[in-house]
Give the backbone structure.
Amino acid sequence: MKRGEIWLVDLSDAKGHEQRGERPALIMGSANGLVVVVPFTTTLSTVRFSHTFSVSPTPQNGLDHESIALVFQIVALDRERFIHKMGSIAEQQWEAITALAKDLLNLDE
């Protein structure tokens, strides 16, 4: 698993407003046996929230539908939750999503 790849992950035991079910997620990095990801949703109205980014399906990324990267729901997952690789994100999209993550975590200050 590498940064920028999109994998189908299992979030079936989510609570409250967390994303749940099997869904694509963008790999942001990994450490200590966990993988940090940004989950996607196909609920397009979520783009109204801060720290989200719209991604259109392409052969490169493997998405089936227009999807929203929910950067504000960044999470660390065990590798057992990863089902299969779908594809990878374009460089320009990677840069936009990482900029949102840096802003969310106040890393530019």
